[in-house]
Amino acid sequence: MRAVRTGQRTAQVPPARSSAAEAVWTSEVRREDDALVTLAAQWQELAARCRTATPFQSAAWQASWWRAYGRPGRLRVVLVRRDGLLVGAAALRLDRGGRLTGLGGRLIDFTDVLLDDACAEQAAARLAAALPLRRPWQLLELHEVRPGSAAHLLYAAWTGRRHQLLDSVCQHLPAVPMDQLLARLPGRTAQRSRAKQRKLLEAGVVATRVPPEQTGAAMEDLLRLHALQWESRSVTPEHVSARFRQHLTESTAGLARIGQAVVYRYHLDGELLAVDLLLLCPSLAGLYLYGAHPRLRERIDIAGLLFGTSLQEAVAAGIPELSLMRGEEPYKQRWRPEQERNHRLLLGPRHFAVALSVRLAVVRARTALAPRLRRVRTLLGR
């Protein structure tokens, strides 16, 4: 192996052969705060060649999240190129203690890295070698990794210490016309759901697809209605913050321009009463966020309304799955969704992986205590 200095890291490149067809691999770690912006075009091209990529891995979503939530000097973008073409990428955030995590925090449902499908295993090995994880206090922790994601190839290629844990429950339905979806349900549940669908039609709700250039205003409406929807309960504090508003508005506009986000407005009797955001990629359509006025909930089946338009979009695009994202909320359960668990991946250096050992102990302790804490909260809430 020979060492080639690229960017701010020394990448290992195989010794040159006489064959003109031998690929040249390089890697680098970019640290500038605008790296995701300057790489946007290459990043998006790679995302299109990575079958596991979701809208959360798009250049628009990642760059928007960093602008809203990132701290100067903490961005680490690991890149791998094959003959100059970007074939592997991971956007990471450095914590003060030396831990690296994926971008997105609690807002992301599916974390992943990007690997070109044409050379995914090779790119994963190069990406693993380029990760800045050499010191005892260094650690990479990837939350909410879907089964089968590119990040699992990175995990498999990692030669140091590693651990895989279960993360959030995600649920999904087959993306089929509503009639077929209802046919999956047990008798009485299907009967009630069909009655609710008839009531929807009779109510005269008008669903309007929002043009990409109008998504900014639509997100303002969505967040306003979302706050109203939760005003009598406990709204997620982050959803009413200025930085979330900035991120949601910017990322949705960028995703809508490339066909990875669709926004619907719903009017009843001429009044805007609901807005929802659907994320799209070849493998899934994801119900990310919605806002609905409490008055609408009193009159119609909100879930049936949103699922109806989402299924239409997914079927029209040839997408096989309607993802209900993370969580086991009651409104999802009556549709009998399939469940699967995301994973949490921990990577550390081969020797003296102190940070990894400590983090693993903390995560396991929290997991063990979680059921007890839920019971305590339930008792206190009575």
What would your notes on this structure say?
A hairpin with a 2-residue loop joins strand 1 and strand 2. Helix 3 packs antiparallel against helix 9 and helix 8 packs across helix 9. The N terminus is likely disordered. The longest helix has 28 residues. The protein is α+β, with helices and mostly antiparallel strands. Strands 3, 4, 5, 6, 7, 8, 9, 10, 11, 12, 13, 14 and 15 form a 13-stranded mixed sheet that branches. It has a two-stranded antiparallel sheet with strand order 1-2. The protein is built from 13 helices and 15 strands. It has 2 domains: 202 residues, 3-Layer(aba) Sandwich (Aminopeptidase), CATH 3.40.630.30; 144 residues, Gcn5-related N-acetyltransferase (GNAT) (Aminopeptidase, 3-Layer(aba) Sandwich), CATH 3.40.630.
Topology:
Blueprint: E1 2-6, E2 9-13, E3 25-30, H1 35-38, H2 40-48, H3 59-69, E4 75-82, E5 85-94, E6 99-102, E7 114-115, H4 120-130, E8 139-145, H5 150-157, E9 161-174, H6 178-183, H7 187-203, E10 206-209, H8 215-229, H9 242-257, E11 261-268, E12 271-281, E13 284-292, H10 294-299, H11 302-317, E14 321-326, H12 330-333, E15 338-348, H13 354-381
Domain BioF2-like acetyltransferase: 189-333
Protein name: Glycosyl transferase family 1
Keywords: Transferase
Please give a handful of descriptors for the protein shown.
382 residues, alpha+beta, Aminopeptidase, 13-stranded mixed β-sheet, two-stranded antiparallel sheet, 15 strands, disordered N terminus
